[in-house]
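Methods — Computational structure assignment.
A single polypeptide chain was analysed. Its primary sequence is given first, followed by the predicted tertiary structure written as structure tokens.
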Amino acid sequence: MSEERKAARQPARRSVYYQVLGAHLRQLRRRRGVSTVDMAERFGVSVAMFSKIEHGSRGPSPAALEMYAEVTGVPLLELLAGAAARHREELDPFDLLLRVELPEHVRALDGLALYAGIPARHMPRSLPLRLTDTSGVIFGAADAYTRRSSTEAGDS
């Protein structure tokens, strides 16, 4: 297999995402005081499934995400947005786009894009020149940041 094809798959990045997502789901579940045994009994699935998800050895299916959303009381897109923010922080804690105030729907789309595994090369790239090295890092953030910056510039 060519090096280009190996690099395009990026299994390590997905693995890190699954670990961060699993830790996020575990934290939310524990905050609500629900055990994996309780979840397994409630939904009729194995405890092992939740264990694998929370330890990052497998990604959660949409049905499993729905179970976590129901148990934790956190809407699904908000759950994914929180995991995406943690993942971005893990990959590059100094990324300027993590510090930009973005609309909730943009954060939710970022979480959904990460969960779906949409490659960064398919993300919008309309960032100001000084931030081009981070383009495509957060889905939709480029356009929101550009609009906010131009609005603030007009106010001064």
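Note: Confidence is low (pLDDT under 50) at residues 126-153.
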